[in-house]
Amino acid sequence: MARARTGSTNAPGERLGVLADDVDEADVNTRALDTYIGYALRRAQVAVFSDFARTLGEHDIRPAQFSVMLMVQAYPGITQSTLCSHLDIEPSRMVGLVHDLEARGFAVRVRCKSDRRSHGLFLTKPGEAELTAVKQLVDESDRHISARLTGEERETLLALLHKLYQG
Amino acid sequence: MARARTGSTNAPGERLGVLADDVDEADVNTRALDTYIGYALRRAQVAVFSDFARTLGEHDIRPAQFSVMLMVQAYPGITQSTLCSHLDIEPSRMVGLVHDLEARGFAVRVRCKSDRRSHGLFLTKPGEAELTAVKQLVDESDRHISARLTGEERETLLALLHKLYQG
DNA sequence: TATTGTTATACTCTATAACTATA
DNA sequence: TATAGTTATAGAGTATAACAATA
Fold it and tell me: Nearest protein residue to C8's C1' (by CA)?
């Protein structure tokens, strides 16, 4: 890095026609970025989501859709707007997620008794079965990506992440 | 949650025309998701990137573009392909990032001596100045989001995240 | 033949505004 | 008038294939 920083031979050259010296690829690292929480979060998230997609394979359930299914299972009859506020998903995006679940026969919308503007959501029998299968794979993926951590480190990581986005 | 799980009154009703009972919003939480590393990472990353955008304000530099500028400053003359491999950005996306930096006068492309297919990248004087200003804001944002952690917790978090995506 | 940079394309995610039906 | 759900649209991120210039 010292060599690269001198800039003695590698000047930008406002004058065109100048050719640039090589940077020795062996010297290159991302140390200047590695101290940022945001950069580390991003890289970790990409790695985790990539494993998620690989593990779920042909099920074709995205993380956001999995989170919706899990919440609908935990709270049968939950409305889209309640889901939106708790999962921090925009209502307009929720429409597509729910519509896809319905089109695949995994969920149904039912008008709410108290407020007929709202739709209560329920998993169908096939939806419950799909979620059971998918949940096993998600758990497997979570174990897989946590494999580099001890159980204690995993709990510490979860607690620190919660501190970042909660109170 | 116990009430919601019984499903006694809230059955999906394959029969249409049935109306759904309300779910008590006060009972709703994301506990079923909070134990997943991937979910916690995603929520934390959204919070951090949101603060990043808010803090940088009118500078209109996205995280990916900031990472490129920082690497070009550390390694003047670095090529797009080297940047791509180290930042894990697709070459086709790098084109747009670099083009935008050039269009704004923050960077220049210079043909490489050894391999004239490659373009060495350099920050211009205005680019250096912009990066200096932006880096202060990024550091401020990082301090801001780290405020809920002790210095030791922050280091622990970084170390655990690195374990997730590195060796 | 293989690689660098590029163009084109497409799909997902994110964000906003506007509309409808209900309240 | 306000809210739930919807539609439409646009910008950004991600991924792939194909092409020109160069190796």
Answer: B92
Distance CA B14, CA B143 (A): 53
Q: What is the sign, positive or negative, of the torsion defined by CA atoms of A61, A66, A68, A72?
A: positive
Span A18-35, pLDDT tens digits: 677 888 888 899 999 999
Residues 49-78 of A with CB under 7 A from strand D: 50
Measured between alpha carbons, how far is A80 from A98 in angstroms, rounded to an integer? 8
- What does the alpha-carbon distance between residue B121 and residue B125 come to, in Å, rounded to a whole number? 13
DSSP class of residue B148 equals T
Kindly list the distances between the CA atom of residue A143 and the CA atoms of A43, A149, B145, in Å, as whole numbers in the listed order. Answer: 18, 10, 28
State the average pLDDT over residues B47-72.
94
| B20–A108 CB contact, under 8 Å | no
- Chain C nucleotides with an atom closer than 7 Å to a protein C-beta: 3-9, 12-18, 21-23
As a residue count, chain B comes to 167
Both structure tokens of A139? 């758990």
* pTM for the model: 0.88
DSSP letter at A20 equals B
Asked if A29 lies within 8 A of B86 by C-beta distance, the reply is yes
